[in-house]
Specification:
The chain has 384 residues and is of the alpha/beta class. It folds into 2 domains: 175 residues, NAD(P)-binding Rossmann-like Domain (Rossmann fold), CATH 3.40.50.720; 192 residues, N-(1-d-carboxylethyl)-l-norvaline Dehydrogenase, domain 2 (Orthogonal Bundle). 52% of the residues lie in helices and 9% in strands. It has an 8-stranded mixed sheet with strand order 3-2-1-4-5-6-7-8, with helices on both faces. Helix 4 links the parallel strand 4 and strand 5.
Length: 384
């Protein structure tokens, strides 16, 4: 099958690399010729690095690169069996692009969006054959991250879902199926990792390096929340939060942070701009964390409790299976363990007590406890 990729940024080129490595011819489109030239150089550099590391040999690198065709004319998509869109997170732009693509491709071509939080149903509604539209959400960097969320819209044909999952599985990825709700699994369940950390910072409970230290050294996360926000980009992370907040009818649980908004407005985007929550300039001296174990444990307990609450609510609303939710969080964002498994280990009653304590302290709906957790605590049941 010939695969079409729309958008030659880091995500689009990463997906192209995956598909070409799996043996597919790939049509990688971008309207910007300069972007295509840059992508070509980046792909060659990445493949050369894999050769240097002994992951592949020269012949394989040349074959992979040779299967990727960089084009700036959408008509090249005519014989593709699958198109994956990986462009800006703007619903109207995506709908317009899908209409253009549909006028070019075959009737049996699957049209997929790599959106991280937008409605697949809305994108599908822009197409005449809406039943062939589906969400296929990779995580960055796509060649390294194992997880892919598969999101059928209400219009999506069962065969399209089956074929899409089978194909992505054949690329060596781990797929999870999730309902078409804002943020899907990962970008919904992970919101408290950022939001509660920002709240702790804004309250003056702890500073940026201390919160990061607690979440890495005590909780076992690979990156602290502020390091990760700087890596993702404060502009990108804030936009996803704002999108989820708006899509959930301004539910306070997903309320964005003014701190992050101001950093984004100032151009302090993180690593890519040289400054974010940390300073990445040469010879920069960032503040050292306060390694207070008691404080660190309080930080971890608060953030993890909110993460567990969100994961439990995803089960309550049948967003995905318990297994897929835990798989998504460990393989999609490298959490040290599945949140539902973590809840079982801590004890459901203790989780409920921690969340209710926060609600009592602040009196905000942000800290309402999931009905499922309350029910499980009462019955003495566990997730697994």
């Amino acid at each position: 099958m010939k695969i079409g990729i729309l958008g030659s940024g880091s995500m689009g080129s990463g997906i192209a690399q995956i598909a070409a490595t799996a043996g597919h011819e790939v049509i990688l489109y971008d309207k910007n010729k300069e972007a295509l030239t840059k992508t070509s150089k980046n792909l060659r550099r990445i493949l050369n690095r894999l050769v240097e590391k002994g992951r592949i040999d020269d012949a394989a690198a040349n074959a992979i690169f040779g299967r990727i065709y960089l084009v700036n004319n959408m008509n090249a998509y005519a014989e593709c069996g699958l198109i994956i869109e990986a462009i800006v997170e703007n619903l109207e732009i995506k709908k317009s692009v899908f209409q253009q693509i549909e006028s070019i491709v075959r009737d049996d071509c699957i049209l997929a969006s790599n959106t991280s939080s937008l409605s697949i149903a809305s994108i599908a509604a822009a197409c005449e054959k809406s039943e062939r539209v589906i969400g296929i959400h990779f995580f960055n960097p796509a060649p390294l991250m194992k997880l892919v969320e598969i999101i059928p819209a209400v219009q999506t044909n069962d065969k399209v879902l089956e074929e899409s999952q089978k194909l992505i599985d054949s690329w060596g990825k781990l797929t999870v199926i999730t309902k078409d709700t804002p943020g899907f699994i990962v970008n919904r369940v992970a919101r408290p990792f950022y939001a509660e950390s920002l709240r702790i910072l804004e309250e003056g409970v702890a500073d940026v390096p201390t919160i990061d230290w607690a979440m890495t050294e005590i909780a076992g996360f690979r990156m602290g929340p502020f390091t990760l926000m700087d890596y993702i980009g404060n502009d990108v992370n804030y936009t996803v939060t704002e999108t989820v907040f708006t899509a959930f009818y301004f539910d306070p649980r997903y309320k964005p942070s003014f701190t992050q908004k101001r950093l984004s407005e100032a151009g302090y985007l993180g690593r890519k701009s040289g400054r974010g929550f940390y300073d990445y300039s040469e010879n920069a001296k960032n503040v050292e964390p306060i390694k207070d174990i008691k404080l660190g444990k309080r930080i971890v307990e608060r953030i993890v409790a909110m993460l567990i609450n969100e994961a439990a609510d995803a089960v309550f609303w049948q967003i995905a299976s318990k297994k897929d939710i835990d798989l998504a969080m460990t393989k999609g964002v490298n959490y040290p363990k599945g949140l539902l498994q973590w809840a079982d280990e801590i004890g459901i009653p203790k989780c409920v007590k921690r969340i209710e304590k926060l609600y009592k302290k602040y009196g905000e709906d942000r800290y309402r406890c999931s009905p499922l957790l309350r029910k499980m605590a009462k019955k003495g049941t566990t997730f697994f």
